[in-house]
């Protein structure tokens, strides 16, 4: 049995232990979650996504697997970074994970709209927003004459990765793995109220080790 964390994982993994079923628990973040910390004591193997994951204690069988990502992200990473050219806009992809981010829709959108007119003419924004923010964000960009593609959900986010010159996003485990696989420049804005501050730890690990982006606390 393989578990990927969270409290719903605890009961099945305990049942596997009672029934002598081999089990693996996978930790997606740079600091082990509370459920996984408990389960790591009874699982056969603890699989980690980050080297030197914090708060891992007294676990014998540890392997480093990284976070699984779709092959499309890896294919993007195999292609050399394509710079913006004079007759095409510098494309910025903004998304806040599976549900969007209110901060991006409000504060970040306002910041972009305050850029000098010359810069606004040279950028394109691709942004995921919540349903309640969709109309407002579209109107803001339209008012400030910024080319923008706004949606509540992108069916194939890797298509947007491919065209982006810069990505601004949260720093959940899966998101970080996709950024790494695609080799895209990124600015990470960790979710401030994430459990155990794991998003900050994810982004901090990258900032300190491989310098793939900027960390905004």
What does this structure look like?
The chain has 217 residues and is an alpha/beta fold. The protein folds into 2 domains: 2-66, Rossmann fold (3-Layer(aba) Sandwich); 72-215, Glycogen Phosphorylase B (Rossmann fold, 3-Layer(aba) Sandwich). Helix content is 37%, strand content 18%. α3 crosses α8 (173-182) and α4 packs parallel to α6 (134-143). The model has no long low-confidence stretch (mean pLDDT 90).
Low-confidence parts: none
Say which CATH homologous superfamily of the largest domain is assigned. Answer: Glycogen Phosphorylase B
Q: How many domain modules?
A: 2
Main sheet: strand order: 7-6-5-8-9-10
The gist of it:
This protein is α/β, with parallel strands linked by helices. It is about 35% helix and about 20% strand.
What order do the helices and strands come in, and which of them pair?
Blueprint: E1 2-3, H1 7-18, E2 24-27, H2 34-39, E3 45-48, E4 62-64, H3 71-77, E5 90-95, H4 102-113, H5 117-120, E6 123-128, H6 134-143, E7 147-151, H7 157-163, E8 166-169, H8 173-182, E9 186-188, H9 198-209, E10 213-215
Parallel strand pairs: 1-2, 2-3, 3-4, 5-6, 5-8, 6-7, 8-9, 9-10
């Amino acid at each position: 049995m393989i578990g990927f964390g969270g409290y719903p994982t605890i009961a099945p993994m305990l049942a596997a232990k009672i029934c002598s079923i081999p089990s693996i628990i996978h930790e997606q973040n740079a600091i082990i979650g509370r459920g996984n910390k408990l389960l790591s004591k009874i699982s056969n193997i603890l699989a980690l996504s980050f080297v030197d994951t914090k708060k891992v204690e007294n676990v014998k069988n540890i392997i480093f697997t990284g976070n699984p990502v779709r092959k499309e992200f890896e294919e993007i990473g195999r292609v050399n970074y394509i710079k913006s050219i004079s007759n095409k806009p510098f494309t910025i992809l903004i998304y806040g994970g599976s549900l969007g981010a209110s901060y991006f829709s409000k504060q970040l959108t306002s910041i972009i709209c305050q850029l000098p007119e010359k810069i606004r003419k040279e950028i394109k924004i691709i942004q995921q927003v919540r349903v309640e923010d969709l109309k407002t964000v579209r109107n803001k960009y339209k008012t400030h004459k910024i080319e923008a593609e706004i949606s509540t959900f992108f069916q194939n986010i890797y298509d947007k990765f491919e065209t982006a010159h810069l990505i601004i996003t949260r720093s959940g485990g899966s998101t970080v793995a996709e950024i790494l696989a695609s080799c895209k420049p990124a600015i990470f804005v960790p979710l401030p109220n994430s459990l155990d501050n794991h998003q900050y730890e994810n982004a901090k690990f990258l900032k300190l080790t491989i310098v793939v982006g900027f960390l905004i606390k």
